[in-house]
Structures are given as C-alpha cells and as structure tokens.
Amino acid sequence: MESIWSLTEKKVTKEKITYFPRAYYRVKKGYIVVRIALDMSRFQDRFLHLGEDLENGLYCNLIEREVEENFVKYTLLYDMQKSRIPIKQVTVEDGSMRLMDHVYWEFDKMPHMLIAGGTGGGKTYFILTMIEALLKSGADVRILDPKRADLADLETVMPEKTVLSKRNGIMMTLRKSVEEMLQRSEDMKQMPAYQTGSNYADVGLSPVFIVFDEFVAFMEMLDPKEKMQALEYMKQLVMLGRQMGYFLILAAQRPDAKYLADGIRDQFSFRVALGKMSESGYGMMFGDVDKTFSYKRIKGRGYADTGTSVIIEFYTPFVPRGYDFLNKIGRASEEGSERRRRQSPTAV
Ligand SMILES: Nc1ncnc2c1ncn2[C@@H]1O[C@H](COP(=O)(O)OP(=O)(O)OP(=O)(O)O)[C@@H](O)[C@H]1O
After folding, report:
1. How, if at all, do strands 208-212 and 311-315 pair?
2. Any residues with CB less than 8 A from the CB of 159 and at least 6 apart, and which?
3. pLDDT in tens, 295-339
4. Of residues 242, 205, 142, the one with CA closest to residue 343
5. Are residues 287 and 233 both part of a single domain?
6. Which of 117, 228, 260, 341 maximizes the CB count within 10 A of its CB?
7. Residue 31 lies in a domain
8. Which atom of ligand 1 is nearest to the CA of 149?
9. How many other CB atoms sit within 10 Å of the CB of residue 210?
10. Does residue 29 form part of some domain?
C-alpha cells in the first residue's frame, strides 16, 4: 500500500505536468476542422506547428492552416484523391481557376505559377488543361516552348505569334510583354473606372498569361548577356504583373535555384511539384518545410503550395483517355476571342 506521502507526491506531480489546451473539432463533408486556442502558454508555439502530427495521426491531408483571433485552425481532408476533378470541371472565373474540388488558383491574389515535374509526371497534361480553360475564359495566352516539345504543336490551332519556340521569338515575346504591361499601367490610369489601387479586372481588361515550358533549358541556351536580359524581363513581369494582369506560368523538369534567385521564386505564389522529385527538388520548390514527401504511381499527382505556405497533396484535373487537346484548344481559342470581342469590341 502506498503511503499518504507518496500519494500526495503523485498528485502534485500530476497537476504539474497536466495541461489541457482548449481544442475543438468539427467534421463536415469530408473535412476535419481542428481549432486550438492560443492562450500564450509555453506550449503555444507547438500548437502553431501541429500540421504534420495531425496529418499523420488522423491519416488526413492538411489543406489549410490559419491563425485566427486567439485560435489556430487546421483544416484537414480525409482523402485528397476524392477531390480530383475531371478536366471539364476546370473553370476560370473572377480571377480564379478551379483545379480541384476545393483548390483554386486565385491568380488575381496569388499571381504566377511555378511547375516542376520529372518526365511522365503529368506536367504537359496539366499545362494543356490550364491553357484550354484560360483561353475559353477569354484570357490572352502566349506559349513559349523552347524545346519544341508538346506545346509547340499548338501553333497549328492558335493565332499567329502566340506560340513560340525559337530563341529570338521567345526573347521578343518576353520583351513585348514587358513593354505592353508598362504601357497598360499608363493606359489604366486614364480609364474612367480607374481608382488608386485598381487592378486590370477593375477597369475591364483581360488577363495575359505567359506559359513558359522548360524555362531552365531555355536559360541554358543563352549567352550570359541574354540570360541577364531574360531574367530581367521575368523579374519585371513577376513584380508588376499582378496589378496589370500579366501572369507567368513557368515550368521546368527541375527548378534551378540560380534562375529563381533574388526572391524571384517567392513571387510565384502557386507552386506545384508533380511526379517523382528529389528532396533537393522539393526544397527548391517549397523551401525548408516540415513535410514528408512521398511518391505514388498516379499520373498527375504531386504536391502544391497554393499560396498559403501549407503544402497539400495535389492531383491535376483528370483527362480522359483519347482527349483531343489540339482540337479542344483550337476551339477554346476561337471561343475566347469571340468573348473578348463581345466584351470590348475595340480590344481584339
Ligand atoms: N491529368 C491526367 N489525367 C489522365 N492521364 C494523365 C494525366 N496527366 C498525365 N497523364 C498520363 O501520363 C502521361 C504522361 O503525362 P505528361 O505527358 O503530361 O507528362 P510530362 O510530365 O509532361 O512528361 P514529359 O516531360 O516526358 O512530357 C500522359 O500521356 C497520360 O497518359
């Protein structure tokens, strides 16, 4: 039998080490939302970094972490693959593109996308999917494919000078895009709907997307002077693009740190890594993060940071077998020009 002293001792010790944070959870439509109170205790810092523990413990995927007033909120999803959508459900509306059931690329708020993916990971299908949706919405899309891989074929169905694969043509498109963007910034100020801080959409202009595949391979083709010039154009586009409606979608098999230096990478708010990648590849895409990455043999599967700094498991929209991208993109391009003509008869 324990003496009264040891019992008391036990009690005291227990009181000392026991701490109950206020935590709430809610389960709804496949989501688990966990809220933990931030009460300034010495454990608070740990509660702010529970994402991976919750993912592993609940066998779910963290899709968002938000700090609210007095709480940190984790939103988890049971099965990310269930949120994959078919290509026909990809839509572009109000500055946002729907990519999964609950995942949007809000390009107006989170401009520029960086995509990395090893061979066969689904990078090309993903880019083609976005091109089709963007064109359909009336966006102006310019495609740069320096390796003359799959995207160059689009020149047969797209307007002249919108698909480029030669070095001079690519450099010229980058230069022209920067010039147009700067001109747009001047023109916007003269528009009746313009107010300080207005963006391109507020004054009724269409967005412009520059889809640049294999940009690392392109950089490697250039001499040092041209390299600096190309980087300068890209820097200007990423810095000023959001307000003027110029967005870059940059893709490479492996993002090379030297072409994403000087804070350029951080300007790409939406980052996607598809297929098999090395630890250093993930590091280059997402920075130094607390996340265990794994590989599954599913085409179009990978990870994404949608602009919230939470890395989610990501599935590109599903493309059915035999889907005729060339034909669909040709039709989307015509539909988009028609839409632009209707919205602004002088703009096309
Ligand atoms: N979203 C998807 N839905 C259905 N199948 C897909 C999807 N993405 C990729 N695939 C399948 O995987 C194959 C390879 O995809 P894709 O050509 O996009 O890869 P990639 O990463 O661009 O590779 P590479 O660099 O070698 O061209 C496709 O031919 C297709 O069969």
Report:
1. unpaired
2. 333, 337
3. 888 999 999 999 888 899 999 999 999 999 999 999 999 999 888
4. 205
5. yes
6. 117
7. yes
8. 27
9. 23
10. yes
